[in-house]
Amino acid sequence: MKVLKISSLGVAIVVVAVVAILIFGTADLRTKTAKKNKNEKKALSLLQDMAAAHQIHNWDSLSTYTVRFQEEMFGLIGKSSNPFPEAKSQFDLSYIPNTYDGKLSFVDGPNKDLSWGIQSWQTYTQRAGGAPQFAKQKDIFFWVPTYQYFIEFPLRIMNANAFGYAGSKTINGTTCEGIIASWNTIEPQRHIDQYLIWIDADTKRIVKLEYTIREMYNFLTGAAYYTEYKDFDGILLPTKMPVESNLLGKGKYLHQMDILDFTKNNVSLTELRPNSEIDILGDDKP
């Protein structure tokens, strides 16, 4: 009966997704301000202020890092999209900055002592003390680099090359200014994501990050709130990131990501690149 319920939910979500694609098409995060006049000069100035406020230059001192991370999924849609066996999971995320080489290692629950890894977009699993087993795994391919991108976002978005000023907005009582960022153009593209970054007008820290999820569905969007910042010896990170989805009603969260701890250079490059025969791609995507 439980399998039947989950299968029925999965079918329902697919039906909703197909209908949404037909009705809504490709999501566009541009605000009216950005559509009217992209004002790239103002957007770039604000982007540089954000980068300085987030101290992104300090990432250059890291070879690797590890984050103790907690993920909690909410509701039926959260349950259906949860790649983990429990609604709330803790794991260590270890990465090489500005690449897509990393590992997710479970610290509790049914998957304890299991790691999910990705090296130059090739995925693998690994048991404690065992050798990595390379094979295609869609959950690893999506979630491991996704977590990295949220953590490193102020650094990584500097690699975008199309920007527009999105205007001003008050978010949870904070006056913000917005930047729309993408690649090649800020207009919607079927295979390239848009990011709408709302920045505190005073501190220049990110308050809210809106984004498309083209890899899944063109109509799908999400939004993460960057809250409760903590300075980890020069690396400034939000420790709580509740996430909204356009599949849910206003004020409802799909999941919440928490950063519980952060340590520098505690794993080797070799550990995160276990297959020496794979070419290093860095920030490139296949």
Task: Give the secondary structure arrangement, pairings included.
Elements: H1 2-24, H2 32-36, H3 40-53, E1 65-73, H4 75-81, E2 88-95, E3 102-106, E4 114-119, E5 122-127, E6 133-134, H5 138-156, E7 162-171, E8 174-182, E9 195-200, E10 206-212, E11 221-225, E12 227-232, E13 235-245, E14 255-264, H6 269-272
Antiparallel strand pairs: 1-2, 1-14, 2-3, 3-4, 4-5, 5-6, 7-8, 8-9, 9-10, 10-11, 11-13, 12-13, 13-14
Task: Give an overview in words.
The chain has 286 residues and is an alpha+beta fold. 25% of the residues lie in helices and 35% in strands. The protein contains 6 helices and 14 strands. Strands 1, 2, 3, 4, 5, 6, 7, 8, 9, 10, 11, 12, 13 and 14 form a 14-stranded antiparallel β-sheet that branches. It is globular, with a radius of gyration of 19 Å.
Weakly predicted, low-confidence segments: 1-15
Structural class computed from helices and strand pairing: alpha+beta
Overall 3D form: globular
| Helix count, DSSP H or I runs of 4 or more residues | 6
Largest beta-sheet characterization = 14 strands, antiparallel
β content, as a range?
25-35%
| Total strand segments | 14
> Mean pLDDT, nearest integer?
91
